Amino acid sequence: MAQDMNGKDIISIHELSREEIDQILYTSHVLKMKNKLGELYHPLKGKSLGMIFQKSSTRTRVSFEVGMWQLGGYALFLSANDLQLKRGETIADTARNLSRYLDGIMIRTYNHQDIVDFAEYSSKPVINGLTDLLHPCQVLSDIFTIQEKKQDLKGLKVAYLGDGNNMAHSLMFGGAKMGMEISICSPSGFEPDPEITRLARLDASQTGGKIVIEDDPYRAVQEADIIYTDVWTSMGMEGEEEKRVESFSRYQVNSALLEKAKDNVLVMHCLPAHRGEEITDEVIDGPHSIVFDQAENRLHVQKAIMALII
Ligand code: CP
Ligand code: NVA
Questions:
Q1: Which residue among the candidates 14, 59, 108, 244 is catalytic per the annotation?
Q2: Does the N-terminal or the C-terminal CB of the chain have fewer CB atoms within 10 Å?
């Protein structure tokens, strides 16, 4: 039965039911088909989305803005530096004001609690466009991409190599909900947040999924259907870059590592990539890589999210 998601915040995949995720995936498929056929579809005519960015973005900004336009609505880019937030206006007052003008608000920020607080005071749905803790729209798009390539998600193994960061956390939440095995392989000191791990394991216990935390990249990629990586130095961590390059060098996704994986393994990266660090040119531009399909699907999946919640 169709889920009524109107007004729902999309802050963490952990808070979505399996039925809601399936509905997002199905709607993404329908919207992608319409897009490919050149069929116009304007369910959000007259609606507007505010997009608050406290960090840089290429994919998130453009895919939300174009997506809203394709749905018949209007999207506004709001640099957090230019809002009164920067001069001390509270998150609560900003949320109360913006939700009088807008029909939905997408936020990219540092502190995850800021989005949670914003959503509490906003009368309109809030979408997490990345925080230091989570990146749900990316992983919903990634699940859609994996489904396109592999059909059945249940039991698939994803080996994520690198930092136990926002991407690792959302992959754990998304994979657990879909009954997948997510193996997070990070050097000591860079493991995922223990509370996220506990919650993802709780979800996995309901779906037959599995969450593994390990530190040996060669072991992690064995029997993996997908190898996933992300930058070693996320936005906001630039001060640690030198130390991180040193700590993560063993975790590079390169041809030698791919040789240990299944012949039909897929390689994913949320992008932007730091080529030559977490992934080599040879791999990201090679036959196993599906990174640009992933990037394209941000558009279709976020359109589905907006059409369902706004
Ligand atoms: N993957 C992703 O969110 O890309 P941007 O930082 O360019 O938005
Ligand atoms: N972990 C990365 C993801 C970028 C999309 C970051 O937070 O910078």
A1: 108
A2: N
Q: What is the pLDDT of residues 63-113, one digit of tens each?
A: 999 999 999 999 999 999 999 999 999 999 999 999 999 999 999 999 999
Q: Which CATH number, 3.30.200.20, 3.65.10.10, 3.40.50.1370, 3.40.50.300, labels domain 138-295?
A: 3.40.50.1370
**pLDDT tens readout for residues 139-169:** 999 999 999 999 999 999 999 999 999 999 9
Asked if residue 138 has its Cβ within 6 Å of ligand 1, the reply is yes
Query: What pTM was computed for the model?
Result: 0.98
CATH superfamily of 13-134+296-309: Aspartate/ornithine carbamoyltransferase (3.40.50.1370)
Compute, in angstroms, the gap from residue 270 CA to the centroid of ligand 1: 7
**100 labelled catalytic:** no
DSSP string, 141-205: HHHHHHHHHHS--TT-EEEEES--SHHHHHHHHHHHHTT-EEEEE--TT-PPPHHHHHHHHHHHH
